[in-house]
Design brief:
Elements (H helix, E strand, L loop, with lengths): L1 E3 L5 E3 L1 H12 L5 H8 L3 H13 L18 E9 L3 H9 L4 E6 L6 E7 L2 H12 L5 E8 L14
Antiparallel strand pairs: 1-2, 3-5, 3-6, 4-5
Amino acid sequence: MATRDKNGSPTIDAVSLAIIEQLQEDGRRPYAAIGKAVGLSEAAVRQRVQKLLDQGVMQIVAVTDPLTVGFRRQAMVGINVEGDLDPVADALTEMNEVEYVVVTAGSFDLIVEIVCEDDDHLLEMINKRIRTLPGVRSTESFVYLKLKKQTYTWGTR
């Protein structure tokens, strides 16, 4: 089960990790099959999965290849901010094109991944929407030419 440690962060037992691993292999795998693999009943697996979802430990989502659904341009954008990072990070999280926002310690204050329809859309995002945010000092873009690996199995290593 997932419980909370002294800092309030979830701690996950070996059985719940095994359930997560099963779902990472196939998010549509039946609870009965998962139960057989991890040594629990279907009902117990269903209960654990719901608790993991409720606690925000995991999500079950459909992951698409952006190219196959009309998004031909992906980029990582490094952003330097003057002053408080939070308002800029919060504004970025509200943009549909932004897949993730990371606060970093290094050359950039924030790193975001953007998924766009084409180069014009990417240019509009960077020039008109990101660079115009109050506090944004500079950006550096890293356009994806080819994605060689994308995995979501790191959660159980």
